[in-house]
Amino acid sequence: MIRCFAETAKNWKRIDVVKHLREITPAGTTGPLLPGKLDVWDVPVETMRELTINLTVTDWQWRTVAEKLGLRPHEIEFLDMRYKNPCDAALAFLAQRDGMNVDDLYDVLTESGMPLLADIL
Fold this sequence. Notes:
Elements: H1 2-11, H2 15-24, H3 45-57, H4 59-68, H5 73-82, H6 86-98, H7 102-111, H8 115-118
């Protein structure tokens, strides 16, 4: 219900209402500040950098997200060995392959127990 209210506020360009809801509700409740249907490819670079760095700092976090998004263990290992920011590479690969949007990523992050990271979006 809160997420629907926040989405309505975003549609009416009332980001101030969404930000207030974020202050008074638990993390991961309001949905992303970015448009939900925005393709992950189009997330601002600064936002994606903040999210992927935070996910990569703890090795298990980005791996959990990549697995929930459909990457197989050997694909995760490959990305981990080849890239400085394997989470960014995984999200880019999945966005290209599956057409993932911000709502999808937000939901996976909250379901994975990372609502504070989801609220970066």
